[in-house]
Design brief:
A six-stranded parallel beta sheet has the order 3-2-4-1-5-6, sandwiched between helices. α11 crosses α12. The protein folds into three domains: 131 residues, Rossmann fold, CATH 3.40.50.300; 61 residues, Histone, subunit A; 73 residues, Helix Hairpins (Orthogonal Bundle), CATH 1.10.287. It has 13 helices and six strands. The two termini are 33 Å apart.
C-alpha cells in the first residue's frame, strides 16, 4: 500500500480542501476521520463533502451509518481497516482526514484489548441510566472505580455507563484496560502526517460564515428531520454542533437568531478544544499554515 497521508486540524480550517488537492496529486482516496461526518442524516450540519466534491475522488466512511447508531472509536477503527484494505486492493493512496483526535490516536496506537461486556450487564446499566441521573451514576462509579470516576465528567452518562459496564463485567478498571497497549493500524513513522493551522481570528470567521451557509443550505430542514426521529439525547449524533440550538428553535424555545448564535458559539468552543488536543498530541506532525 502507498504511504498513507494523515490530515488533522480544527473545524473549518480547510482540511477537506487539502485532502482533495492531495487526492488529485497522488491518486488518493479520501477516508473520513470525523466522528460526525459518519452520519447519513447529518450531511449539512457535519459539513460533509458535497456530492460534487465526492465526485472528484473516491470517498469512504462518509455518511455510512445512521444517527440511531451509537457509533464508537472501536467501530471506526474496524471500518477504516476495511477502507485501507480496499485502497490497497484498488491502488489508491489513502488520505485520512478529520478533526476527531481520538480516531487518529486509535489509528496510530491501537485500542486497549478490553473484553466484551456480557449482554445482561450492558442491559442492566442501560436500564439504570434510564432511571438515574448522570451524577447519581457517577457516585456509584466513584465507589466501584474511583480512578475512572475522577477522570469523567459527572454529566457524561455515556462514558460513565461504559466504565460501570467494564468494572462490573471484568472486575478491572477501564483505566487499567486502557493502559494495556493495543496494535496500531498505521505506525506514525510510516505515514505523512499534517496538521492544518489557521489564526484563531480566521477560524472564527470561517466558523461563522460556514454556519450561516449551513442555514442557507437547509440545516433547519435537516434538524427537523432529526427531531422527527426522536433520538436518545445520549446518542453521539445528538451532540452534533449546532443541532441542539436548532432543535430548541424548532420547539419554540429560542429565536432563530439566538439559535444561530448558539450554534456558532458551540462550534467555536469545540475548535478551542481541538486546538489544545492537537498541540498536545500531534507535536511531531508537519504544520501547514493557511491564511
Amino acid at each position: 500500500m502507498p504511504v498513507p497521508i494523515l490530515i488533522a486540524g480544527p473545524t473549518a480550517s480547510g482540511k477537506s480542501a487539502l485532502a482533495l488537492e492531495m487526492a488529485a496529486r497522488h491518486g488518493g482516496a479520501v477516508l473520513n476521520a470525523d466522528s460526525m461526518q459518519v452520519y447519513r442524516e447529518l450531511r449539512i450540519l457535519s459539513a460533509r463533502p458535497t456530492p460534487e466534491e465526492e465526485a472528484r475522488a473516491p470517498h469512504r466512511l462518509f455518511g455510512h451509518v445512521s444517527v440511531r447508531d451509537a457509533y464508537s472509536v472501536g467501530r471506526w477503527l474496524d471500518d477504516v481497516a476495511g477502507a485501507l484494505a480496499w485502497c490497497a486492493g484498488a491502488g489508491y493512496r489513502p488520505i485520512i482526514v478529520g478533526g476527531t483526535g481520538l480516531y487518529f490516536k486509535a489509528l496510530l496506537e491501537g485500542l486497549a484489548p478490553i473484553p466484551s461486556v456480557a449482554p445482561e450487564i450492558r442491559a442492566h446499566w442501560r436500564r439504570e441510566a434510564g432511571v438515574r441521573t448522570a451524577p447519581e451514576l457517577h457516585k456509584v462509579l466513584a465507589v466501584r472505580d474511583p480512578e475512572m470516576a475522577a477522570r469523567l465528567d459527572p454529566g457524561d452518562t455515556q462514558r460513565i455507563v461504559r466504565a460501570l459496564e467494564v468494572i462490573d463485567s471484568t472486575s478491572v478498571s477501564l483505566a487499567e484496560w486502557q493502559r494495556r497497549p493495543g496494535t496500531p493500524l498505521i505506525r506514525e513513522h510510516e505515514a505523512e502526517c499534517y496538521v492544518v493551522s489557521r489564526s484563531r481570528e480566521e477560524v472564527r470567521r470561517r466558523v461563522d460564515t460556514r454556519f450561516d451557509a449551513m442555514i442557507a443550505a437547509g440545516a433547519l430542514e435537516e434538524a427537523r428531520a432529526i427531531a422527527a426521529l426522536d433520538l436518545d439525547p445520549e446518542l453521539p449524533a445528538a451532540r452534533a454542533h449546532g443541532l441542539r440550538p436548532l432543535l430548541a428553535y424548532l420547539r419554540g424555545k429560542m429565536t432563530l437568531d439566538a439559535a444561530v448564535e448558539a450554534g456558532k458559539l458551540e462550534t467555536r468552543q469545540y475548535v478551542k478544544r481541538q486546538e489544545i488536543w492537537l498541540r498536545r498530541n500531534m507535536i511531531a506532525w508537519k504544520t501547514i499554515s493557511s491564511q
